[in-house]
């Protein structure tokens, strides 16, 4: 047998399927940009990422096909959102109580200048 330097090396398969997907995901995480790696340092986010990947593998999604992964995510979007954060609260919109101050209105501080020349100068 001749040694071929261009042949891809096959990783030894583990005895259980969970650790093999976990090992694959750990390698993929190492290849991600630093912004994503920092988010995956949180154990809850990392475990959620791993569980979604395991479900995708169980459904037979090819991880090399972005199209298949996007389709799977779209098909399971509602249930993934429901599982996501059950204690997540609805975010309220901020409503200002006072009247809106226009740029050319007199400044509310009482200086007599226009708002744009006084307190609103840095905005």
Explained architecture:
- The chain has 123 residues and is mainly α.
- The chain is built from five helices and no strands.
- It has helices spanning 17-31, 34-39, 43-58, 66-75, 77-84.
- Helix 1 crosses helix 3 (43-58).
- The radius of gyration is 27 Å and the shape is elongated.
- The model has no long low-confidence stretch (mean pLDDT 78).
Q: How would you summarize this macromolecular structure in one to three sentences?
A:
This protein has five helices and no strands. With 123 residues, it is an all-alpha fold. The protein starts with 16 loop residues before the first helix and ends in a 39-residue tail after the last helix.
């Amino acid at each position: 047998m001749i040694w071929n330097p261009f042949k891809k090396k096959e990783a030894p398969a583990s005895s259980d399927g969970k650790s093999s997907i976990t090992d694959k995901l750990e390698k993929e995480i190492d290849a991600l940009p630093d912004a994503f790696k920092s988010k995956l340092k949180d154990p809850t986010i990392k475990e959620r990422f791993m569980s979604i990947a395991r479900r995708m593998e169980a459904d037979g999604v090819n991880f090399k096909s972005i199209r298949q992964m996007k389709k799977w995510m779209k098909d399971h979007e509602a249930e993934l959102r429901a599982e996501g954060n059950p204690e997540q609260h609805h975010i309220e919109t901020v409503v200002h109580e006072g009247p809106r101050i226009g740029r050319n209105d007199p400044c509310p501080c009482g200086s007599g200048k226009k708002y744009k020349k006084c307190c609103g100068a840095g905005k």
